[in-house]
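Intended use. Records like the one below are meant for learning the mapping from a protein sequence to its folded structure. Do not use them to infer anything beyond what is encoded.
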Amino acid sequence: MAHQHRHQPQHTQEHIQDHAHAHAHGDIDFGTMIPMLEGQARLFAPLYADALAWLSRQQPEPGLIVDAGSGPGIISGYFAEAFPEARIVAADASAALLERARENAERLGNADRFSTVEAELPNGLGELEYPADLVWSSRVVHHVGDQRAGLIALAAVLAPGGTLAVMEGGLPERNLPRDLGFGRPGLETRMDLIEQTWFSEMRTTLPGHVRETEDWPALLTAAGLRPSGTRSFVLDLPAPLADEARAYVIGVFDRRRSMFGEELDAEDRATLDRLLDPDDKASLHHRPDVFVLAAHTLYTATKPGE
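Structure written out for the chain above:
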Protein backbone atom coordinates (compact mmCIF):
# COMPACT_ATOMS: atom_id res chain seq x y z
CA MET A 1 0.00 0.00 0.00
CA ALA A 2 1.15 3.51 -0.47
CA HIS A 3 -0.08 6.96 -0.16
CA GLN A 4 0.95 10.52 0.26
CA HIS A 5 1.47 11.80 -3.11
CA ARG A 6 2.23 9.44 -5.49
CA HIS A 7 1.34 7.55 -9.75
CA GLN A 8 -1.67 8.68 -11.73
CA PRO A 9 -0.82 9.27 -15.36
CA GLN A 10 -1.41 12.99 -14.99
CA HIS A 11 0.88 13.56 -12.03
CA THR A 12 4.58 12.80 -11.95
CA GLN A 13 4.42 14.12 -8.41
CA GLU A 14 1.98 11.39 -7.55
CA HIS A 15 3.91 8.76 -9.42
CA ILE A 16 7.17 9.30 -7.66
CA GLN A 17 6.33 11.21 -4.55
CA ASP A 18 2.84 10.92 -3.21
CA HIS A 19 2.70 8.73 -0.18
CA ALA A 20 5.51 6.42 -1.15
CA HIS A 21 3.48 4.80 -3.84
CA ALA A 22 6.30 2.74 -4.99
CA HIS A 23 5.30 -0.26 -2.94
CA ALA A 24 4.77 -1.74 -6.36
CA HIS A 25 8.52 -1.44 -6.86
CA GLY A 26 10.46 -3.47 -4.31
CA ASP A 27 13.79 -1.67 -4.73
CA ILE A 28 12.62 1.57 -3.12
CA ASP A 29 14.43 2.70 0.03
CA PHE A 30 11.57 4.35 1.87
CA GLY A 31 13.82 5.82 4.53
CA THR A 32 15.50 8.05 1.96
CA MET A 33 12.09 9.16 0.63
CA ILE A 34 10.82 10.51 3.95
CA PRO A 35 11.96 14.15 3.53
CA MET A 36 10.44 14.31 0.05
CA LEU A 37 7.17 12.70 1.13
CA GLU A 38 6.82 14.90 4.17
CA GLY A 39 7.73 18.04 2.27
CA GLN A 40 5.08 17.47 -0.36
CA ALA A 41 2.40 16.57 2.17
CA ARG A 42 3.10 19.79 4.04
CA LEU A 43 3.15 21.85 0.85
CA PHE A 44 -0.26 20.43 -0.09
CA ALA A 45 -1.69 21.08 3.39
CA PRO A 46 -4.23 23.68 2.13
CA LEU A 47 -5.65 21.18 -0.37
CA TYR A 48 -5.96 18.50 2.31
CA ALA A 49 -7.53 20.97 4.74
CA ASP A 50 -10.27 21.73 2.22
CA ALA A 51 -10.80 18.02 1.55
CA LEU A 52 -11.04 17.18 5.25
CA ALA A 53 -13.47 20.04 5.88
CA TRP A 54 -15.70 18.60 3.14
CA LEU A 55 -15.39 15.09 4.62
CA SER A 56 -16.29 16.35 8.08
CA ARG A 57 -19.70 17.37 6.78
CA GLN A 58 -20.30 13.80 5.56
CA GLN A 59 -18.85 12.07 8.61
CA PRO A 60 -18.81 14.66 11.42
CA GLU A 61 -17.80 12.53 14.42
CA PRO A 62 -15.87 9.42 13.35
CA GLY A 63 -14.63 7.24 16.17
CA LEU A 64 -11.96 5.45 14.12
CA ILE A 65 -10.22 6.78 10.99
CA VAL A 66 -7.94 4.60 8.85
CA ASP A 67 -5.33 6.33 6.68
CA ALA A 68 -4.83 3.52 4.17
CA GLY A 69 -1.40 4.08 2.65
CA SER A 70 -0.23 6.58 5.23
CA GLY A 71 3.41 7.00 4.26
CA PRO A 72 5.18 8.92 7.07
CA GLY A 73 1.88 10.00 8.59
CA ILE A 74 1.69 13.70 7.80
CA ILE A 75 -1.87 13.40 6.51
CA SER A 76 -2.71 11.16 9.46
CA GLY A 77 -1.73 14.16 11.57
CA TYR A 78 -4.09 16.38 9.59
CA PHE A 79 -6.90 13.93 10.38
CA ALA A 80 -5.98 13.94 14.07
CA GLU A 81 -6.22 17.73 14.09
CA ALA A 82 -9.46 17.89 12.09
CA PHE A 83 -11.15 15.17 14.20
CA PRO A 84 -9.80 15.66 17.75
CA GLU A 85 -11.96 12.90 19.28
CA ALA A 86 -11.08 10.22 16.74
CA ARG A 87 -8.63 7.35 16.95
CA ILE A 88 -6.28 7.28 13.94
CA VAL A 89 -4.80 4.14 12.40
CA ALA A 90 -2.03 4.57 9.83
CA ALA A 91 -1.74 1.57 7.51
CA ASP A 92 1.17 1.14 5.12
CA ALA A 93 3.35 -1.65 3.72
CA SER A 94 6.61 0.05 4.75
CA ALA A 95 7.82 -0.47 8.32
CA ALA A 96 10.21 2.47 7.95
CA LEU A 97 7.40 4.83 7.00
CA LEU A 98 5.21 3.58 9.84
CA GLU A 99 8.02 4.16 12.31
CA ARG A 100 8.25 7.74 11.07
CA ALA A 101 4.46 8.07 11.32
CA ARG A 102 4.64 7.08 14.99
CA GLU A 103 7.40 9.64 15.55
CA ASN A 104 5.28 12.34 13.92
CA ALA A 105 2.26 11.42 16.04
CA GLU A 106 4.41 11.67 19.18
CA ARG A 107 5.76 15.05 18.07
CA LEU A 108 2.23 16.36 17.53
CA GLY A 109 0.96 15.02 20.84
CA ASN A 110 -1.38 12.48 19.23
CA ALA A 111 0.37 9.24 20.22
CA ASP A 112 -2.33 8.31 22.76
CA ARG A 113 -4.90 7.94 19.99
CA PHE A 114 -2.64 6.84 17.16
CA SER A 115 -1.60 3.35 16.07
CA THR A 116 -0.18 1.66 12.97
CA VAL A 117 -0.82 -1.48 10.95
CA GLU A 118 1.70 -2.88 8.48
CA ALA A 119 -0.51 -3.87 5.56
CA GLU A 120 -0.57 -4.09 1.77
CA LEU A 121 -3.72 -3.75 -0.30
CA PRO A 122 -5.84 -5.64 -1.07
CA ASN A 123 -4.98 -7.78 1.97
CA GLY A 124 -3.75 -7.08 5.47
CA LEU A 125 -6.27 -4.67 6.99
CA GLY A 126 -7.98 -7.37 9.04
CA GLU A 127 -5.86 -6.55 12.11
CA LEU A 128 -8.01 -3.54 12.98
CA GLU A 129 -9.65 -3.84 16.39
CA TYR A 130 -13.04 -2.72 15.16
CA PRO A 131 -14.64 -1.28 12.02
CA ALA A 132 -13.73 2.20 10.87
CA ASP A 133 -16.10 5.12 10.47
CA LEU A 134 -13.87 6.78 7.86
CA VAL A 135 -11.26 5.23 5.55
CA TRP A 136 -9.00 7.54 3.54
CA SER A 137 -7.08 6.29 0.50
CA SER A 138 -5.06 8.86 -1.43
CA ARG A 139 -3.64 7.71 -4.78
CA VAL A 140 -3.18 4.17 -3.51
CA VAL A 141 -5.78 2.07 -5.31
CA HIS A 142 -4.22 2.61 -8.73
CA HIS A 143 -1.18 0.72 -7.43
CA VAL A 144 -3.28 -2.38 -6.85
CA GLY A 145 -3.40 -4.69 -9.86
CA ASP A 146 -7.09 -5.39 -9.30
CA GLN A 147 -8.46 -1.97 -8.33
CA ARG A 148 -11.95 -3.34 -7.73
CA ALA A 149 -10.52 -5.86 -5.25
CA GLY A 150 -8.64 -3.03 -3.56
CA LEU A 151 -11.85 -1.05 -3.07
CA ILE A 152 -13.66 -4.15 -1.79
CA ALA A 153 -10.89 -4.63 0.79
CA LEU A 154 -11.18 -1.01 1.93
CA ALA A 155 -14.98 -1.25 2.07
CA ALA A 156 -14.72 -4.35 4.25
CA VAL A 157 -13.02 -2.27 6.96
CA LEU A 158 -15.97 0.14 7.22
CA ALA A 159 -18.68 0.05 9.83
CA PRO A 160 -22.26 0.34 8.55
CA GLY A 161 -22.80 4.00 7.76
CA GLY A 162 -19.05 4.56 7.44
CA THR A 163 -17.44 6.54 4.62
CA LEU A 164 -14.70 5.56 2.18
CA ALA A 165 -12.85 8.54 0.69
CA VAL A 166 -10.72 7.74 -2.36
CA MET A 167 -8.50 10.43 -3.88
CA GLU A 168 -7.68 9.48 -7.46
CA GLY A 169 -7.15 11.49 -10.62
CA GLY A 170 -7.66 15.19 -11.07
CA LEU A 171 -5.83 17.40 -13.55
CA PRO A 172 -2.19 17.53 -14.67
CA GLU A 173 -0.21 19.75 -12.34
CA ARG A 174 1.35 22.85 -13.88
CA ASN A 175 4.45 24.69 -12.71
CA LEU A 176 5.56 26.82 -15.66
CA PRO A 177 4.18 29.07 -18.42
CA ARG A 178 3.40 27.35 -21.71
CA ASP A 179 6.17 29.35 -23.42
CA LEU A 180 9.39 29.49 -21.39
CA GLY A 181 11.12 31.93 -23.73
CA PHE A 182 13.38 29.16 -25.06
CA GLY A 183 12.79 25.71 -26.49
CA ARG A 184 9.46 24.63 -27.95
CA PRO A 185 6.37 25.80 -26.06
CA GLY A 186 4.34 23.10 -24.32
CA LEU A 187 7.09 21.06 -22.62
CA GLU A 188 4.92 20.01 -19.68
CA THR A 189 2.18 18.72 -21.99
CA ARG A 190 4.65 16.55 -23.87
CA MET A 191 6.06 15.17 -20.62
CA ASP A 192 2.50 14.34 -19.54
CA LEU A 193 2.04 12.21 -22.65
CA ILE A 194 5.21 10.26 -21.96
CA GLU A 195 4.15 9.78 -18.37
CA GLN A 196 0.73 8.48 -19.36
CA THR A 197 2.40 5.78 -21.46
CA TRP A 198 4.72 4.91 -18.57
CA PHE A 199 1.80 4.71 -16.15
CA SER A 200 -0.23 2.44 -18.41
CA GLU A 201 2.74 0.10 -18.79
CA MET A 202 3.36 0.15 -15.04
CA ARG A 203 -0.25 -0.84 -14.39
CA THR A 204 0.06 -3.92 -16.63
CA THR A 205 3.04 -5.19 -14.60
CA LEU A 206 1.19 -5.18 -11.27
CA PRO A 207 0.31 -8.60 -9.81
CA GLY A 208 -3.21 -9.63 -10.74
CA HIS A 209 -3.62 -6.70 -13.13
CA VAL A 210 -7.18 -6.19 -14.32
CA ARG A 211 -8.05 -3.42 -16.74
CA GLU A 212 -11.00 -1.36 -15.50
CA THR A 213 -12.90 1.63 -16.72
CA GLU A 214 -11.80 4.11 -14.08
CA ASP A 215 -15.32 5.26 -13.28
CA TRP A 216 -14.72 5.54 -9.56
CA PRO A 217 -18.36 5.94 -8.46
CA ALA A 218 -19.22 2.82 -10.48
CA LEU A 219 -16.31 0.92 -8.92
CA LEU A 220 -17.36 2.03 -5.44
CA THR A 221 -20.88 0.81 -6.19
CA ALA A 222 -19.45 -2.54 -7.32
CA ALA A 223 -17.66 -2.71 -3.95
CA GLY A 224 -21.04 -2.62 -2.21
CA LEU A 225 -21.00 1.06 -1.29
CA ARG A 226 -23.35 3.94 -2.01
CA PRO A 227 -21.55 6.87 -3.73
CA SER A 228 -22.08 10.05 -1.70
CA GLY A 229 -20.08 12.73 -3.49
CA THR A 230 -17.31 13.77 -5.86
CA ARG A 231 -15.32 16.96 -5.53
CA SER A 232 -11.99 18.30 -6.73
CA PHE A 233 -9.67 20.32 -4.53
CA VAL A 234 -7.11 22.82 -5.77
CA LEU A 235 -3.68 23.86 -4.57
CA ASP A 236 -2.89 27.27 -6.05
CA LEU A 237 0.52 28.66 -5.12
CA PRO A 238 1.16 31.56 -7.50
CA ALA A 239 4.52 32.99 -8.43
CA PRO A 240 6.75 34.06 -6.86
CA LEU A 241 7.12 30.86 -4.84
CA ALA A 242 8.52 30.48 -1.36
CA ASP A 243 11.79 28.55 -1.13
CA GLU A 244 10.08 25.32 0.01
CA ALA A 245 7.67 25.33 -2.91
CA ARG A 246 10.43 26.14 -5.40
CA ALA A 247 12.48 23.23 -4.05
CA TYR A 248 9.45 20.96 -4.52
CA VAL A 249 9.11 21.99 -8.18
CA ILE A 250 12.83 21.47 -8.80
CA GLY A 251 12.48 17.99 -7.29
CA VAL A 252 9.53 17.19 -9.55
CA PHE A 253 11.42 18.18 -12.70
CA ASP A 254 14.60 16.45 -11.56
CA ARG A 255 12.72 13.17 -11.13
CA ARG A 256 11.02 13.65 -14.48
CA ARG A 257 14.45 14.08 -16.05
CA SER A 258 15.64 10.86 -14.42
CA MET A 259 12.58 8.82 -15.33
CA PHE A 260 11.51 10.19 -18.70
CA GLY A 261 14.29 12.40 -20.00
CA GLU A 262 15.64 9.91 -22.50
CA GLU A 263 12.20 9.61 -24.09
CA LEU A 264 12.10 13.33 -24.92
CA ASP A 265 13.53 14.57 -28.18
CA ALA A 266 16.88 16.34 -28.13
CA GLU A 267 15.42 19.85 -28.03
CA ASP A 268 13.07 19.10 -25.13
CA ARG A 269 15.84 17.30 -23.26
CA ALA A 270 18.08 20.34 -23.67
CA THR A 271 15.27 22.57 -22.40
CA LEU A 272 14.75 20.36 -19.37
CA ASP A 273 18.47 20.31 -18.62
CA ARG A 274 18.56 24.08 -18.81
CA LEU A 275 15.62 24.31 -16.41
CA LEU A 276 17.56 22.18 -13.92
CA ASP A 277 20.89 24.01 -14.23
CA PRO A 278 21.38 26.11 -11.05
CA ASP A 279 23.84 28.34 -12.92
CA ASP A 280 21.31 29.27 -15.61
CA LYS A 281 19.27 32.37 -14.76
CA ALA A 282 16.37 30.96 -16.80
CA SER A 283 16.29 27.79 -14.67
CA LEU A 284 13.78 26.72 -12.05
CA HIS A 285 16.30 27.82 -9.43
CA HIS A 286 16.01 31.49 -10.44
CA ARG A 287 13.09 32.27 -12.74
CA PRO A 288 10.31 34.33 -11.12
CA ASP A 289 7.37 32.71 -12.94
CA VAL A 290 7.43 29.24 -11.34
CA PHE A 291 4.14 28.29 -9.64
CA VAL A 292 2.20 25.28 -8.34
CA LEU A 293 -1.31 24.64 -9.62
CA ALA A 294 -2.76 21.20 -8.86
CA ALA A 295 -6.25 19.70 -8.73
CA HIS A 296 -6.96 16.37 -7.01
CA THR A 297 -10.34 14.64 -7.10
CA LEU A 298 -11.93 12.93 -4.09
CA TYR A 299 -14.69 10.33 -4.39
CA THR A 300 -16.73 9.32 -1.35
CA ALA A 301 -19.13 6.46 -0.70
CA THR A 302 -20.95 5.13 2.36
CA LYS A 303 -21.52 1.58 3.56
CA PRO A 304 -25.23 0.73 3.80
CA GLY A 305 -26.51 0.20 7.35
CA GLU A 306 -27.34 -3.23 8.63
